[in-house]
Design brief:
2 copies of one chain form a homodimer. The first copy, chain A, is an alpha/beta fold. Chain A has 13 helices and 12 strands. In chain A, the strands form 2 sheets. Chain A has a 6-stranded parallel beta sheet with strand order 2-1-3-4-5-11, sandwiched between helices. A 6-stranded mixed beta sheet of chain A has the order 7-6-8-9-10-12, with helices on both faces. In chain A, helix 8 packs parallel to helix 9 and helix 10 crosses helix 11. Chain A binds a DNA duplex through helix 2 and helix 4.
Chain lengths: 343, 343
DNA sequence: CTGTTAGCGCCTTCAA
DNA sequence: TTGAAGGCGCTAACAG
């Protein structure tokens, strides 16, 4: 790979002149400039960011650590981060943590060795173990969606509590009273928060969550499927259910169909996330859309500001979800039969 | 951030000694070693990979360029790459190209500036524009899934032709004769290859693809939905269809249901990819699973070998898909009625 | 307008 | 078993 020195020699100038034409950092005669540019072109010279970084102490690279880039939510987040970073000339280093503190720590360590300018961290369930490692560094960090109490950094997350609330209130307003919740793994904080929202909406209606109506499962189709099957097998099954994410909701839809339970006739189903395919489920899924992509962009903007030395007060924000009513939710059948309201 | 020099001073040794204890690269007395280690620990010293890279001319970083990390297929691929890279101590720099030659080129350029040791490139449709840029560099490259004729590099892809063939042969064997194909955008080479497989299977059965039975669309649920709707509105609609990916197949399932067409009774549907949710579609989707994750791993292994100077002959390979028969495909109804075969 | 020079943090001969 | 010193490719004073 050609170096600046070689370019300088070939063009008959000093390296500093080459450097200056590249960076437009001081006046260079038109004559020299074109000559240098020509040599750069003919030698296919591309400056070394690593040498530059050593000099400047800046890499224009940010690290991104997510639990699993394959999860649609994290994928969207990642895309938002990458887009925003690209626009300001930053590159992204990605690592999957798989909720494994060991792996996350190892990844983090190598990011720090590589001197990333900043880090977007989705800590997942393994957050507390990471705190000490993080605290010891002075790399700007923004936390995405999972707060870490022990570390004093900026944070932007989704408003999971409100998401659970919106979904449940929708069901309550439809007239449901036996509302179940399919939650993700107990260890996932987001799930707990959504659950809190469910309880709040229920409480407002003078209801409460029947323990038999709360089922935990893996946050994928299969988890949702199995949970819904269990729920539908109850002596007094729910007339509606909120699944903590769309994948689980899709699984629930499948289980309902298998059990011969009509949706939304006998069972209303609401998900969360609004994946692209939610609109093409059968029936089309009512869900609470999450601004995941936007979150990625904001996180990045915030991080870049921090990197630039912006010293705003510590930022903490939760972005609201938005209820998208489609066809998987409706009025409870028995309710209509027993007491046909209005209309 | 602490430097090696500071550590050396504090420990009362030379920087070369510190370097050697860190890298285990020559004998150091036990006394000195523990002292140095203690200082490293207390100063939270973490060596700078950028300085090291400048010296070695190696970054232990590989670039990954995909069209869109949000697409489930690329997400799986990316995960495979990241896993394999992590295991051998490499970090990944990710960029989305969005099938935009400009953006891909810009991204590539910054990866080269950052002196990645190698590149995994999913060129997408914009492949030809990239060839010159690539050819001028001597960075090891492995091409994933999209070959670039003009560049002489290793290549590992999916066997799209065989995928289309397997899906279609399955339908033919079931007794279908009016088989339609929902293809992705014309510009996508993978789609063309799958189509070729469809034609081969049809030809073997003495059939051919009715032009009216070939519909192109965006490779997502909506594209599949709209395409299927058009197909079902035909005077003589197909009895089976192969959608070039699961998302499109899911959309097709939705369209069929809306049109009151029973699956698989009146219409068999086969997809490709085997996304997690394919098994929970209604009916559960027959599809051709793709070894995408494995592809990512192999690509990475190959790349690392190239980086290490391995000079095997140019590698070219297409990984086969695997037909997964579930419930969305069955014998054609009319066929059974007109000429109930055997059984 | 242009060149010389001194590092950035690390590794690695070469000496001791 | 340890240290001194040069250099990786680039930038940024400082001189001219």
């Amino acid at each position: 790979m050609a170096t600046m020195k070689q370019v300088a020699q070939r063009a008959g100038v000093s390296t500093s002149t080459v450097s200056h034409v590249i960076n437009n950092t001081r006046a260079v005669s038109e004559d020299v400039r074109t000559r240098v540019l020509a040599v750069i072109d003919e030698m296919h010279y591309i400056p070394s960011a690593v040498a530059r970084s050593l000099k400047n102490d800046k890499t224009r690279t940010i690290g991104v650590s997510v639990p699993d880039n394959t999860n649609p939510g994290f994928a969207e987040l990642l895309r938002g981060i990458e887009d925003a970073a690209f626009e300001v000339g930053y590159t992204i280093m990605l690592g999957n943590g798989y909720e494994d503190p060991q792996r996350q720590a190892a990844h983090l360590r190598s990011l720090i060795e590589k001197r990333i300018d900043g880090l977007v961290l989705v800590a997942g369930a393994a957050r507390d173990e990471l705190a000490p490692l993080l605290a010891a560094q002075r790399v700007p960090i923004v936390l995405a969606d999972h707060d870490i109490a022990a570390v004093d950094t900026d944070f932007i997350g989704l408003d999971h509590e409100q998401t659970g609330y919106l979904a449940t209130r929708h069901l309550v307003e439809l007239g449901h009273r036996r509302i179940a919740c399919i939650a993700g793994p107990r260890a996932q904080p987001a799930g707990q928060e959504r659950l809190a929202g469910v309880r709040r909406a229920l409480a407002e209606a003078g209801l409460q969550l029947d323990p038999a109506h709360l089922v935990h499962g893996e946050p994928d189709c299969e988890g949702g499927h199995d949970a819904a099957r269990a729920l539908l097998a109850l002596a007094l099954p729910p007339t509606a259910l909120f699944a903590c994410n769309d994948l689980m909701a899709l699984g629930a839809l499948c289980a309902a169909q298998e059990a011969g339970v009509a949706v939304p006739g006998q069972l209303s189903v609401v998900g969360a996330d609004d994946l692209g395919m939610a609109a093409f489920a059968m029936p089309r899924l009512t869900t609470v859309a999450q601004p995941t992509y936007a979150m990625g962009r904001r996180l990045t903007a915030l991080l870049i500001d921090r990197i630039g030395g912006g010293s705003l007060p510590r930022h903490r924000e939760r972005l609201p979800g938005r209820l998208v009513v489609r066809q998987s939710s409706g009025r409870p059948q028995e309710h209509e039969v027993l007491a046909p309201t209005g209309t």
